[in-house]
Amino acid sequence: MQIYQLPLGALQTNCYIIEGENRRTVVIDPASVTEVEMFLNSHGLILGTIVITHGHYDHFAGAAELSRKSGAKILASAPDEEMYGSAQKSWADFMPVEFQPIKPDILYSGGEVFTAEGLSFRVMSAPGHTAGSCLLFMQNDGGEVIFGGDVLFLCGIGRTDGYSGNTREMLDSLERIAKLPGDYRIYPGHGSSTTLDYERENNPYLGRYK
Questions:
Q1: What ranges do the domains of the chain cover?
Q2: Which residue from 22, 64, 129, 195 could staple onto 158, CB 3.0 to 4.6 Å apart?
Q3: What does the DSSP 8-state code read for residue 78?
Q4: Positive or negative CA dihedral for 185, 189, 193, 198?
Q5: Among 188, 57, 36, 145, which Cα is nearest to 49's?
């Protein structure tokens, strides 16, 4: 299964495009419109479903227009619902693009399993960066990979000083992540991909829970 990573927008937010059934794709965290459309067109792909990992605008700046033009449904985290309609709460005020709010078609909170374009996902709540931050586990080649939004980065973690951020909740989430059984490839919201085993050994925020 091909997972495409496109760093987009002023903050180089990672947008992930995953090809599902019949050339239809799941697009995770579209930070812009033009680049996503150009990529899909050049690869002969169709936008099927949009998934948002959390309520910061650099992760959903392109979602409203892409959904409007393609008819794609938007899935997003319920605890961050009020952020999707607020430029201030979503930090859109700090970005050099017009704010376009979204109204998700489907909201999840954690623990759900859903299928989009033939791809299977399960949701793990991981609050701290925002109240609705989560990990999306996707079935891939008999195992699972993680799309982590801004919870966990290569040797780093997401900040907790924004709207609904909470340091205590972040530490609790990191402990649960560190204690997950097995290893996973992690695709974060910014920067390079990594693995859970690597982060357990090299990320100081996870190493404390070894």
A1: 3-207
A2: 129
A3: G
A4: negative
A5: 36
Please state, in angstroms and as integers, the Cα–Cα distance from residue 138 to each residue in 19, 79, 95, 128, following that order. 12, 21, 30, 22
- Report yes or no: 108 and 75 within 8 Å, Cβ to Cβ: yes
Residue with tokens 């996902």: 121
Tens of pLDDT, residue by residue over 9-57, are: 989 999 999 999 999 999 999 999 999 999 999 999 999 999 999 999 9
Tokens, residue 183: 């290893």
Q: Please, where are the H alpha helices in 20-141?
A: 34-42, 63-70
Fold classification of 3-207 is Metallo-beta-lactamase; Chain A (3.60.15)
pTM reported for the whole predicted model = 0.97
